[in-house]
Specification:
By secondary structure, the chain is α+β, with helices and mostly antiparallel strands. The protein is built from one helix and two strands; from the N terminus they run E-E-H. It is 33% helix and 12% strand.
Length: 51
Amino acid sequence: MILQKYRTHRSCQVTGEIHKHNFSIANGKIFLSKNGAQLLLEELQKVLHQS
């Protein structure tokens, strides 16, 4: 038997937050909260500026 943490379909994939205002990108493959989107944006900007 393998136990896994229960994840709701619309939980933020960056922060794990579950909120009715989470939104999807990439044709519904990625769900983000507003906070998660901000964190992701900051990380992407760091990576792009390093190139």
